[in-house]
TrEMBL record:
Gene3D superfamilies: 5' to 3' exonuclease, C-terminal subdomain, DNA helicase RuvA subunit, C-terminal domain, Nucleic acid-binding proteins. Residues 155-201 are annotated as: Domain III. It comes from Alkalibacter saccharofermentans DSM 14828. HAMAP family: DNA_HJ_migration_RuvA. InterPro entries: DNA_helicase_Holl-junc_RuvA_I, Hlx-hairpin-Hlx_DNA-bd_motif, NA-bd_OB-fold, RuvA, RuvA_2-like, RuvA_C, RuvA_C_sf. The keyword Ubl conjugation does not apply. This is Holliday junction branch migration complex subunit RuvA. GO terms for molecular function: ATP binding; four-way junction DNA binding; four-way junction helicase activity. Belongs to the RuvA family. Keywords: ATP-binding, Cytoplasm, DNA damage, DNA recombination, DNA repair, DNA-binding, Helicase, Hydrolase, Nucleotide-binding. It comes from the Bacteria. One of its GO terms (cellular component) is cytoplasm. The gene is ruvA.
Amino acid sequence: MYEYLKGSIKDFYEDKVVLECGDIGYLITVSAMTLKSLSQDAGQTKIYIHQHIREDEMTLYGFGDKQERKLFRDLISISGIGPKVSIGILSSFTFDKFASYLSTGDEKAISTAPGIGKKTANRIILELKDKYKNIIPTHGDSNDVISTTTTEIRKEAAQALESLGYSYSEGLDMVDRIFIDGMTIEDIIKKALSSSAFATS
């Protein structure tokens, strides 16, 4: 089994890259987050590998770091969740954001990923919450850990934006872009709407 492959990137596709190592081109499926971090001009590129073998095919899945690969492997260990769905999840959220959703049990946010309904989101939380409960990201440039209270305020603000016509995931993104510790829900809504209007003007 491969631990990683190191070489130069020759081609990009929608969800795949071709990595040339020793005159062999490896077709590797990657998440959107990993794809964004790769460049053909980077010279030697290391991609961590998960090799998935079925009777009729062998697929290589690639990751920018071991942390993302571990999350992928944890996801595919859950009954009913295969590699394609797991890559879809990793393409929808950064590692830190997804770990935050797991630790706070935010099934509504997780269910915005393609192929994930609320039942599946709840199963993911049930299976993985304890593994990721201590991996809570810092917010923005602050070194303070996001508290449960802060998380609830962010969720309520996103739900309020949802009632105004935005999707829940759009609302969370809007909140995360402008949130400062100590803001009330009313402050968040006003600032989020103001920032959104400015961005589209």
